[in-house]
Amino acid sequence: MRGSLDEAFKTELKRLIIEACDKDVAVEQVGDDVFLFGEASVLALDSLDALQISMEIQRRYGVVLADSKELRRVFTSINSLADYIKSE
Q: What is this structure's pTM?
């Protein structure tokens, strides 16, 4: 199953991001297909947050996100992140 079709998994990822980055945002406020980074994002994540998220993803799912170009593509949205993790 594609990760973007798994609602429970996407909710789990949203919680992971919120907790890893210590954000004061409700899970319901994070859209599945909106940008995770930048001022327009409800999470307003930055490069330090990306590092924290990638370390937590590696710890929980055993998925290593080492390539910076791939990391930017994968971290575009919850849907893209979920699809990447589920494809590994």
A: 0.91
